[in-house]
Write a structure and sequence with these properties.
The chain is of the alpha/beta class. The protein has one domain: 3-Layer(aba) Sandwich (Rossmann fold), CATH 3.40.50. Helices cover 43% and strands 13% of the residues. The protein has 9 helices and 7 strands, in the order αββαβαβαβααααβαβ. The strands form 2 sheets. It has a 5-stranded mixed β-sheet, sandwiched between helices. It has a two-stranded antiparallel ribbon with strand order 1-7. Helix 3 packs parallel to helix 4. The chain is globular.
Length: 216
């Protein structure tokens, strides 16, 4: 006897293994997407990570809105992301705390740098608590990477010092531990937290660990 149409709709699909996926929405159109693309290729998780350049403007709140939209669309398509992250920096933006609050309310991670994303690059080579502008950070970075350009790939310069950069980022957060406003924590970055997540994703992929798709 054939099942009626309504019965077929109500029948649950069996769960099946799926690979964990991560969404990364970037403020910058070149520097950040290039870095995370290189990192994901090196960690062999490029197919599991969606890297999105700015689509709602380059303001931090626009980056968060982009992540909210992409995550909602993925959930609607029944291919939800396991994690969503926003990457933006202080630069000359206002309203950074508001972007943090919106991201936290939506369960979205933030990889934030002050004054600019390049402070993450610089931490691969040196540690300093000296406050700097974005231009000063890039000038200092060129002492280690003479041909540095925002549109160029520099991952090969950084790869061997990734652990050092993570340690320096943690030290800076400890140095600024009494400061609750990220706008005044110069220099600082939390990019290392996203890097650690991608390393974890790489480890899970290498060991064959998978997530389970929820039953519907």
């Amino acid at each position: 006897m054939r099942r009626r149409f309504g019965e077929r709709l109500r029948r649950r699909r069996p769960s099946r293994p799926t690979r964990p996926t991560v969404l990364i929405c970037c403020e910058g159109g070149k520097t950040e997407p290039q870095y995370f693309s290189d990192l994901c290729r090196d960690r062999r998780v490029y197919s599991q990570v969606k890297i999105v350049p700015p689509e709602h403007g380059t303001h931090p709140k626009g980056v968060v809105e982009c992540a909210v939209q992409y995550r909602a669309e993925a959930k609607w398509d029944r291919t939800p992301y396991d994690e969503a992250w926003c990457v933006f920096d202080m630069d000359s933006h206002s309203g950074v705390p508001g972007a943090f609050q919106k991201a936290e309310a939506r369960g979205i991670g933030v990889a934030f740098s002050n004054p600019c994303f390049e402070i993450w690059y610089l931490l691969h080579f040196e540690y300093s608590t000296a406050e700097r502008s974005g231009a000063e950070v890039r000038q200092r970075l060129r002492e280690h990477v003479p041909d540095y350009d925002k549109s160029a790939s520099v991952f090969h310069h950084l790869k061997g010092c990734l652990g050092t950069a993570c340690s320096h980022a943690v030290r800076l957060r400890e140095y600024h531990c009494a400061i609750r406003n990220p706008e005044t924590a110069n220099p600082s970055t939390s990019v290392d937290r996203l890097v650690v997540k991608l390393d974890e994703l790489s480890r899970r992929a290498a060991t064959g660990e998978v997530a389970r798709e929820p039953e519907v």
